[in-house]
Amino acid sequence: MSGPKIVKFPKARQAPTVEIQPHPEEVIDVDPQIIAVMKARLAGEPLDQYFSRDDQMTNELAIERERQKLKAVFGNASDVFGGFSSLEAVKVTRTKLREQKVDQALLSQYASRKLAGQPIDEADLYAHLVTGCELQPKQVRVESLKKLSPTLGSKAREVVDGVAEHYLADGFSAFGVSKEIIELSPTMREQLRNGEIQGAVDEVLNVLYRGME
Q: pTM value?
């Protein structure tokens, strides 16, 4: 006669645990520049007052150095706008800015603090720093350019139509045409194939920068 059967039960499995950790500081920390920009935009006020006095003084010293570099390139506002009035002029201007080691990143940040964060044309900021002339947002240039559109040739008008939105969205920059923009515009692709794009762009740049001084 056999003995009693021994029944073995499986060991109870330990319930999984979830370890909760706080977010690391670098994840939840927000750049003060971003906070300042948002506050200024909501209030419709200049950005400078949202930075500490120490930050403002440091920024002013850095901008003053860039101002002197720009003055070595441009003698007056006409020199600035003439330097962006054709593709060849822009090429020469870019070379001079590189030779003077102008800090584009710093000037872009500086531009973002002006006019409550509205996009500013590169040439307008240079003219402002060199001569003290009043700054205007890109939107003003685009509106003026569209009013002058009837004076432009048909190819130049196609360039305005294809580039205006990109120009506004690009923040601190000058009006220009990139390969990406051309690829997005059938009319500009055709101009490129026919060798008409440079003349059309030059016409727009001349009106945008020379015609609105």
A: 0.72
The angle that helices 186-193 and 197-205 make with each other, rounded to 10 degrees, is: 120
173 forms beta bridges with 121
Cα angle value 80/82/83 (rounded, 5°): 65
Radius of gyration of the chain (CA): 28
Average per-residue pLDDT for the chain: 83
Q: Which pairs count as long-range contacts for 22-29, CB under 8 Å and 24+ apart, including other chains?
A: none
CA-CA distance, 35 to 40, in Å (whole number)? Answer: 9
Report d(CA 208, CA 213) in Å as an integer: 9
Q: Give the CA dihedral 172, 178, 183, 189, nearest 10 degrees.
A: 130
Give pLDDT tens digits for 162-213.
999 999 999 999 999 999 999 999 999 999 999 999 999 999 999 999 887 6
Could you state, in order of their start, the residue ranges of all structural domains in the chain? 30-131, 138-210
Do 146 and 160 contact (CB within 8 A), yes or no? yes
SS3 46: coil
Q: What is the DSSP string of 157-205?
A: HHHHHHHHHHHHHT-SB-S---HHHHHH-HHHHHHHHTT-HHHHHHHHH
